[in-house]
Design a protein that fits this description.
The complex is a heterotrimer of chains A (401), B (343) and C (452).
Chain A (H helix, E strand, L loop, with lengths): L5 H15 L1 H4 L17 H24 L7 H17 L4 H23 L4 H20 L3 H4 L5 E2 L22 E3 L2 E2 L3 E6 L2 E6 H22 L1 H11 L1 H6 L5 H25 L2 E2 L6 H14 L6 H15 L5 H7 L5 H11 L7 H15 L3 H13 L7 H7 L4
Helix pairs in contact in A: 1-8, 3-8, 3-9, 3-11, 3-12, 3-13, 4-5, 4-11, 5-6, 5-11, 8-9, 8-11, 12-13, 17-18
Chain B lengths: L1 H31 L6 H19 L2 E10 L5 E7 H6 L1 H9 L1 H23 L9 H23 L15 E3 H5 L7 E3 H23 L1 H11 L1 H6 L4 H23 L9 H16 L4 H18 L2 H6 L3 H16 L14
Antiparallel strand pairs in B: 1-2, 3-4
Chain C lengths: L43 E8 L6 H18 L25 E8 L4 H13 L5 E4 L3 H14 L2 E4 L16 E2 L5 H16 L4 E7 L2 H16 L3 E8 L7 H4 L9 E5 L2 H13 L6 E2 L2 E2 L1 E6 L2 H4 L10 E3 L9 H14 L5 H23 L2 H5 L4 H21 L2 E4 L2 E4 L2 H12 L11 E2 L1 E3 L6 H5 L1
Parallel strand pairs in C: 1-2, 1-3, 3-4, 4-5, 6-7, 6-8, 8-11, 11-12
Antiparallel strand pairs in C: 9-10, 12-16, 13-14, 13-15
The chains are: A mainly alpha (401), B mainly alpha (343), C alpha/beta (452).
Chain lengths: 401, 343, 452
Amino acid sequence: MFGLDKKDFNLFLVVAAMALLAPFILNPFPTDSALAQFNAGYPDLMQRFVIFGIFAIGFNILFGLTGYLSFGHAAFLGVGSYSAVWVFKLLGMNVLPAIALSVVVAGLFALLIGFVSLRRSGIYFSILTLAFAQMSFNLAYSVLTPITNGETGLQLTLNDPRILGSSATADGSIPVTNLLPGLEIRSAYDLVIGPWSFTFNVGYYLCALFLLLAFYLSVRIFRSPFGMMLRAVKSNQQRMHYTGLNTRPYTLAAFVISGMYAGLAGGLMASMDPLAGAERMQWTASGEVVLMTILGGAGTLIGPVLGAGFIKYFENIFSKINDNVLHGWFAFMPDGLEDFIVTIIHPFIGKGWHLTLGILFMLVVIFLPGGLVEGGQRIAKMFRKKSEGTDTHVDAKHPAE
Amino acid sequence: MDAIILQILNGLDKGSAYALIALGLTLIFGTLGVVNFAHGALFMIGAFCAVTVQRILTLSYEVVDETQTDFLGNPLKVKVPYVESWFGPETGAAIIDWAVPLAILFAIPIMIAIGFIMERGLIKHFYKRPHADQILVTFGLAIVLQEVIKYFYGANPIPTGAPDVFRGSFDFGVLLGFDPNAIIYPYWRLVYFSFAALIIGGVFAFLQFTTFGMVVRAGMADRETVGLLGINIDRRFTIMFGLAAAVAGLAGVMYAPINSPNYHMGMDFLVLSFVVVVVGGMGSLPGAVLAGFLLGILESFASMNEVKSILPGIDQIIIYLVAIIILLTRPRGLMGRKGVMED
Amino acid sequence: MSKSNFTRRGVLKTGAMSAGGLALPTILTAASHAGYTNAPTGSTVTLGFNVPQTGPYADEGADELRAYELAVEHLNGGGDGGMLSTFSSKELDGSGILGKKVEFVTGDTQTKSDAARASAKSMIEKDGAVMITGGSSSGVAVAVQGLCQEAGVIFMAGLTHSNDTTGKDKKANGFRHFFNAYMSAAALAPVLQKLYGSDRKAYHLTADYTWGWTQEESIAAATEAMGWETVEKVKTPLAATDFSSYIAPVLNSGADVLVLNHYGGNMVNSLTNAVQFGLREKQVNGKNFEIVVPLYSRLMAKGAGENVKGIHGSTNWHWSLQDEGSKAFVKSFGTKYGFPPSQAAHTCYVQTLLYADAATRQARSTPVALRKHWKGLNSTVSATARHCIAPTITSASKMFWWCAGKKTQHPSSTFLKWSKSHLRHRSPMPPITRCLPVVNWDHVTPAHNRAA
């Protein structure tokens, strides 16, 4: 269906179900229970899951298929955010033109950088992309402040022209982003069932729609002759050259497509929250998407989305657990034991969430070379003894180099 | 003219830090074929060896001084370092003063041990794995190492002074016939530069003139053949890893007085030293040293106001710009061999 | 689904149907005029403490958190009550805020605008915080302030020194206690004149981003006004760790003062480098070479060790101030944690109390309808705080200020004048700004520092 074979279609259905039912899936604990700390079903985090999912899917089209490891992909996300915010400043608060422009601008920027960087391969390519991204970050932070507003980040102000909208709302505040006139991105609906509470947010569903679109496109690319060509580049570029084939147009196309995905993610980020900061372009941000992709399973379809969710969950949930919360959880224990347990856990939560994340990276890479997808497959295999060599499995065995 | 000499001197100094880290990085890459993202963390641990030695030497007991009060109005507890009470105040103070040079002795065994443990415990299992996995696992390790340091030492920089003898700066300009104060250079940076030169020379001599070094060089060129000859290359590579860790660590120890150590200093250097390695050519030792000094000097020149008035913001991007130009004109870096890390 | 119980959070409960022509109610309304977000319904009220827990400012963030926990303890009637007992108004009686127990959630800003906003959003959307506070950079403060404005909760800024944090874009929900670059310069200039004379040549090294530029502009203008000459202004990259190539040319430029417009790690490194080059032992133009660091942070300055001695800068507050409010705060903080609080801790503690005080006073002094419910608090807090924030500062901390180099206690009438016109819409400063604590680090390197 939709040009997908049965297995891919099933996968797509799973992703669609996960994306559309996320407000339920991510809020499994009653609002007032101690475990509500682990609920992730509030609009901001759900949006982040999806946006970074799109970013990682796009990155995976380049890295998972061609094996070209870009260390500068955050630059495209940053450029996308800046262009979207400029649309909000100059044109109006509708998100669709902003998202469209951010995809186009990021694509052009990717074309430029890709054209230069793809003249080299291997780690030389990685360093070239890293160099371009770091240059963009450094300049955006300082010299280009008139365009980027430097440290503070590009924000909406009351003085913006917004020729198709209004500079300020009737009550004198800055207008908010909308999908259709009157349908604000931040609008949300609360559904309360017994002790549970679920939030449905317009912005989230817009992002989720784009995620499904992005995922569908990526499946099509993976299964197309073009995708096959990219895989061939990965497995042996030399041989491709010997057969007289110029691989550059293919890799460049992959680079630009994945840059546009990053731009889409950036545009969505700015649409959810109209602000663009230079840190989005820093090398650590580029490193983050590399981690997401590898952690989830490079070269697999669903892996990057899982990786993105995993990392964003840690960043947002674990960093908010503090000693007070811990004491709340373990209050049922005798005092001495409670203090002891809190002391043991203390280094790993709150300000220690980086430590937990670092340890988890190492564990996943050491024991699950194919990322979380391989973990899932192993569990699945334990249940059905007979092993089927699925397509994703083959890829997972050979994460890109 | 004086400004140019001044910036060359500054560049040499900056370059020696880059060169030392890049040397270890390329040594590990050349011998083991592993891209070690935790190398910056080793540099940082070296700097914290200096901090630790300083802490150990200033371990103190408290004496209550009734004549003074602390900030809450209680009698002041004056800390007296044990060293001062054992060796007398003057000798004790002198020992504390020399904490950083003393830390070298402390750092060498520690860093070699850390290197061994890292290689045997973790890196060994990643020889056959893709570079992306190596990057991820060493990156994870780097995060863990720096978070552990942060847990014990905090996030703020910790002042770690050089011995008093090396305070102040040396007036080069007068030697060369310029006005006083035209070219000044801190004594400790002179020490750092000489130290770096010594280490770099030492590593090269070791690889060039010892049998051990010869085998390692052979292993770098063709690991399989050397293995087939019945030589236990793995053990030697472990030792090389320890050596590379020690070089990064020593670079860190001596760097502590230049910039107060903090837990993220490794990450600050990591990206730059990778650029240095790649510009020099992956796996090429002379290339790493050359690129380190070259980029250091260029960075210094870019910081001059005369240059910045023509090209605003050039000092922010010079290193990356140069890296791009070099990689586009010389595909394998300055001195890289063909086929290394190109797929 | 038949048994499901459809309700809408916050907004609806306060009866403010401001969602306009659409069917869906809005959670994050600007709510500046009708109702406000996250009105507490139970017996507790939740505050969001959003501080850097990772990254280079993590220690500053940790100190801010300590102060917040102390403030919550005092508001809930625990501990020795700290500053509360020194207040002229006795509205805060240890029963929380308006009789509701104060609870808090914490988050990590990572000193990045994105992360800070994500964390603040989760506090608002998930934890139901009515007030967000904290942070240790202007970028974060501006970003989170904008978010809180939009979401309709109060933002009490933590450490932010940029001129632009307040006064721009009429962010009525954001309040600031910390001083700014303009005030630093105006306070520092007369002191510098007294110490180093009017005939000086200054060389500026400036962090190359918004805050650095404003700081440089302010201090250069203030020193030039008293006769100093600015020899050169050099921008340094934010990512720089080694400042040698910027510092080396200073001596040869004919300047006899070096002004370091740096903060945080930049400040520690540039200062350490400058001292390494022996600048302070040099004589130029027949005068001793001097270094000035306009914005000091005691916590970060520890990283520069002995190097800070004899160098002047400005600070928002220092624990050695001898007014009742400061003494009470230092005593409870010192007793609980064993070391004196930083200026970041002070600002955060005071901001929390200011919020509680404004909220309580407002409700007690206005019609019964407001006292019974929290509804409308948001807009009224801003209105109240606008008028009472300054006297509360005086009663809370009664700072001593350096006025033209002389230590005095500032009359609170001037405070009132300042607060009304400038606290939010801050344009050029009236003479009041000449009065700020100026610190010579010789005097304030007390015993506890030696242990570190």
